[in-house]
Amino acid sequence: MLIVKNHRQGVWIAGIAVLVISFDALLIRLVHSAPANVAFWRGTLIFLSLTVFLWITRRVEEWRAYRRCGGLALLVTGLYGANTGMFVFSISHTSVANTVVILSSSSFFAALFSWLILRETLALRTWAAIFVALTGVWIIFAGDFGGGSRWGDLLALTLAANLGFTLTLMRRLSRLPVVPVVAMGSLAVALAALPFAQPLQLPADCYPWLLIMGLGQMPMATVCLLAATRYLPAPEITLFLLIETVLGPLWVWWVLGEAVPLRTFIGGGTILAAVIMHTYLSLHGQQSAPVSS
């Protein structure tokens, strides 16, 4: 029963993370500023918000646990920082549709790294769900890749591989605290972007969106996403991320008026069906399994 409870908890955490993170592309577009400016403010605000959170909640031990992980902690921190930077620059150099659909291939990378690093044997239902969900992705974006920049598309593909590797390492390093990783990775992004940024020269209407992104949306989404690795395999988490493939372009359409073709609704239904069915089969299989004493 504990396994079932943990899996259900992981499903809820991953679901919340994906819902919140699906607004990311929209917020970046609303800022309408250079990628370096967005990366600087995004990293700075996330670092400040999470540092204050750790200080208020007196969770000093998390920083000690982070330091005890040594080089591996720095590796995961660097990977997370790279993820953040690549997403911002990819969104700025190609379409939202191209970025999120290429990012959905992280499920394949997560499965590969889980097999290589963790020696995890993936259930057939996970592979089947990944295939069905990516079929939905193809339905949505078939023929749309010509409008995006190759540089942005390459960044999105690199991000997909990096995300799959990061989630796999987080599952391997179960004692590595999540919040310091996100905080320090965000600081690294801000410092890397600073030489190329003009953070005080943005239009006034950009700053409210940056505050929403840096103090609320991204800290919550990222912490939930990395926390879900405590309960779910990395390939299953990246399967949840496919939902962003549907929601991300929909938010941009709703707010900014970008048209959404019929195939988005057809493919989106395919993706959601794959995720829901996989989750149901996972929970049903665990409940049916004998519990050892």
Distance between the termini: 11 Å
Helix share, percent: over 70%
How many domains make up the coordinates? Answer: 1
Derived from helix and strand composition plus strand pairing, the structural class reads mainly alpha
Q: Overall 3D geometry?
A: globular
Radius of gyration: 19 Å
Q: What kind of sheet is the major sheet?
A: none
How much of the sequence lies in strands comes to under 5%
State the helix count. Answer: 13
On the 0-100 scale, what is the average pLDDT?
A: 81
Low-confidence stretches: none
Total E-strand runs = 0
Series of H and E elements = HHHHHHHHHHHHH
Describe this structure in words.
With 293 residues, the chain is mainly α. It has one domain (2-288). 80% of the residues lie in helices and 0% in strands. It is built from 13 helices and no strands. The protein is globular. The termini are close together.
Could you name the key traits of this structure?
293 residues, 13 helices, 0% strand, mainly alpha
Q: What's the helix and strand layout?
A:
Blueprint: H1 2-21, H2 24-31, H3 35-56, H4 60-68, H5 70-93, H6 96-103, H7 106-118, H8 124-141, H9 150-172, H10 178-193, H11 206-227, H12 234-256, H13 262-288
At a glance:
The protein is mostly helical and about 290 residues long. Helix content is about 80%, strand content about 0%.
